[in-house]
Write a structure and sequence with these properties.
Strand order of the largest sheet: 1-2
Radius of gyration: 23 Å
Distance between the termini: 75 Å
Order of helices and strands: HHHHHHHHHHHEEHHHHH
Length: about 325
């Protein structure tokens, strides 16, 4: 186990001594996953405390220019994007367009505020820039090497195994949401894929009409009316909300993999997370490259897609007809 090395002036801090004692107690209990999570949380909080004042001291224009350079897009594309977005978007937030052809500015601003809470936008943009650099220099090359070296059918098998291992989390949230039919599907999929599918390597259940789906505790909290809270761009972890952050912690706590690997070495205990990250990044290589090249504001595009994806996941693909806007009569 690699100890945390801190400067000497930290030793005088009572809070740091308490943190180090907690880490030592966890080490004595031989819980490497909890130790790693505790250290990561501590270092993440320290990074946030340092970065937050810096982020708010930077003007928004600098944060924006760090992501998109003025000459990144050709003139025709910039003109086309402006023509499409300026009448319908304000402050890079989603705005409802009147089907009759007009835009109500007050209604548009209200809808944008309801769509998502990005009160930490300046801080989020700074963290997004850091994550983007890490992605381009580390994660993307790793995903490209994974695609190049591992055959497609084997990559699909790895993704299947990871999805099958997460079935208990999906089942628990199916039950908590009162989704009886989906819970039954999850049980059948897990039973078939864990046996006939060789531990989930082959998705035999999907081949027999049992389509896969995922549920998490963030979706469960949303079903019970808990608000998402502010949008946060976390270092390394990417986009999330306060509710989603709590949901991730709960899902990790109830995931059997966490407990099975609790006494393993740190690298071994983190291997499912690393495999999931590389697999997910490899599957989205082309989509993310396209988004980078075609988005005038890459940060806003990622934020909007995150909200749209999470909303679709929460609704399980269903459309609430009552929330659809009224279509006014158009004179012939």
């Amino acid at each position: 186990m690699v100890p945390i090395v801190l400067p000497n002036w930290w030793e005088g801090s009572a809070r740091v001594r308490v943190s180090l004692r907690a880490t030592e107690r966890l080490r004595n209990k031989k819980h490497p996953v909890m130790i790693c999570a505790y250290r990561g949380l501590l270092l993440g909080l320290l990074a946030g405390v340092v970065a937050l004042p810096l982020a708010y001291s930077l003007p928004s224009a600098f944060a924006q220019s760090a992501i998109v350079s003025p000459d990144y897009f050709d003139a025709e594309l910039v003109a086309a994007v402006k023509a499409l977005t300026e009448p319908q978007y304000a402050d890079s937030r989603r705005v409802e367009v009147n089907p009759a052809g007009g835009v109500d500015p007050d209604a548009a601003a209200e809808l944008a505020e309801q769509s998502f809470d990005d009160r930490l936008e300046t801080f989020n943009r700074l963290m997004f820039t850091i994550n983007n650099v890490l992605d381009v220099t580390i994660l993307k090359p790793t995903a490209q090497a994974y695609r190049l070296l591992v055959p497609a059918h084997l990559r699909q098998g790895v993704a299947n195994v990871l999805a099958n291992a997460a079935s208990p989390v999906t089942l628990l949230n199916d039950v908590l949401q009162g989704e009886g039919e989906r819970a039954q599907t999850t049980i059948i999929r897990f039973a078939i894929n864990s046996t006939v599918g060789v531990g989930g390597l082959v998705d035999v259940a999907a081949q027999n009409g049992f389509a896969p789906h995922t549920e998490d505790f963030d979706q469960t909290m949303a079903v019970y009316g808990i608000k998402a809270g502010p949008f946060i761009m976390l270092p390394l972890f990417g986009p999330t909300t306060m509710r989603h952050l709590v949901g991730r912690a709960v899902d990790a706590a109830v995931n059997p993999t966490t407990w099975l690997l609790m006494d393993a070495a740190v690298v071994e205990s983190l291997s499912p997370t690393i495999a999931q990250t590389v697999t997910s990044r490899e599957s989205a290589l082309d989509q993310i490259d396209g988004l980078r090249q075609t988005s005038p504001d890459y940060y806003a595009a990622v934020r909007n897609l995150y909200y749209q994806y999470r909303e679709a996941e929460i609704r399980n693909g269903r459309i609430n007809v009552e929330e659809l806007p009224d279509i006014p009569d158009v004179p012939e």
